[in-house]
Each structure stands twice: as C-alpha cells, then as structure tokens.
Amino acid sequence: MRIAITGSTGLIGSALVRSLRADGHDVVRLVRREPRPGRGEARWDPDTGYVDPAPLAGCEAVVHLAGAGIGDHRWTDAYKRKIRDSRVRGTATLARALAALDTPPAVLVSGSAVGYYGDTGDRVVDEDSPAGHGFLPSVCVEWEAAAAPARAAGIRTAFARTGLVVAKDGGAWGRMFPLFRAGLGGRLGDGRQYWPFISLRDEVGALRHIIDTPALHGPVNLTAPEPLTNRQITAAMGRVLKRPAVLPVPAAALRIVLGEFSQDVLTGQRARPARLLESGYVFRDPGIEQAIRAAL
After folding, report:
1. Domains along the chain with CATH numbers
2. How high does pLDDT run on average in the chain?
3. pTM, full prediction
C-alpha cells in the first residue's frame, strides 16, 4: 500500500513510518523543506496552502499528524495561535489537496486529541460525548472541522483522538522518565485527574487498524481501555522503575512554571476507546505497567 504521512519526524509519525516500511509499504513523507531525491518525500506548505500533488498519486491512505507541540512552549497568545493555526490550516490545506486529486485516497486519518472533551472529572466519555469548554476543546473542534473537503469528496475520514502516549523519547513521558529515575517523580496537584494513556506501539497499531478497517470513520479515541488517575500512574511509575514517587508537585508551582497550560495538566479526561474496541482492535499494552515496560 502507498501511504502519505505528515508529521513524519515527530514521536508518533516516525514510529508509524518505521512500522509501515518494515512491513513493505511505500511511505511518502510530506515535508516543508525541499524534498531530497530518493527519500520518498513530497513538498507541502500549510502556511501558503501548497501541496505537491504528483507524489500523492496512487496513495491509498493518508495519515495527518502535523501540528505544533502542545507542551513545547509556555502558552503566550502568539503560541496559542501557532497551536491552532498549525492544526486548522494544515488540515484544511491537506484536505483540499486530497479532494482535488483525480483519484483521491480511500482514507484520511487525521490527528486530533482527547482534549476535545475538556475536563471530564470522574465522568466517563467516549466518541459520542460532546466537546468540552476551553482552549484545547475549541482547537480540536476546528481541527476536525477543517477536514470537511476530504469528507465531501467521499474520502473516508477518521479523527484519531489521541491520549498521552507512553514513550521514553518524546511527549509528556519523555520528560517524566528522567525525573522518576532520579527519584524526583510524584503526582501533579492532587493527582485525581484522569490521564487517558496509550503505549506508543498501540498508538501505531491503532492508526494502522483505522487504515485497514473500512467501518471506522469519524472520531476514534486512541487510548488504553481503562484510563487511570495521575496518582495511580505515578504509583505505577515508581513500581516499574523501583524508585520512590512521593514528591508531589503543588498546583501553585505548576501554574508558575507552565502558566495557562497548567490548567490542562491538572485536569483530565476519563476517555474510553469505544470504537476501537467495538471494531476488534486488540491492545498489546492495555495496562499502565505494560505500557511503561514497553516504552523502556
């Protein structure tokens, strides 16, 4: 199968590229710089709305993962615009380009996030639950709506609402592992907020499952079967790494260090992957200790 991917150098994208190529698939990586000959790359520029259509010819699937990192910088007004624009403009640019192809791909898997649901407290949510309130939910709503041209062109479009990916080389866990190894890990705030986690290999497996499952379209939560609280995850990290995990990070300190982003760290989503489970996906790492050990 010929598959195009944006965001292919990120944590999830690079792992997906490795997995697909290991199984013999032809992967086209959409890049913003000048493509290098013989590297399976195609040029795109979401800021100007440009996508080179030639390398997309014959692609049966497209996975769109590009977007500015949520936790990479303090949330100034300028960076919040970058978070929103990188997702909404990028998705709209790609969706229009795919819709204009003589032979569009059969499926577009477009990135999204469980942040769509906002702070759910103890309430369990799935793909039929409404959007929450606040900055990240509003971004997710616009992000998913930007794929409308692809859906209108008859392309099966799925939104991969990803949780917190357990991996040692990137994302939230990439920052947590060194702290816990040093014995400096602990719950964030009161630790009662739910963290919908997923191992990196299940994230990749779920993305591939969506590509291969014609019945899957619309929102699909990419999270482990049962979300846990930050307090439970902290305890699991301590057990697996054999380190104490008793130093809580006060909410006030997080607000000082992270600014507005601390609000999302101190809240969470008790999200379940109903559609993945209903479609027959089998998790390799359903539990948090399995996910942590897989990352290590």
Report:
1. 2-167+196-224+271-285 (3.40.50.720)
2. 91
3. 0.94
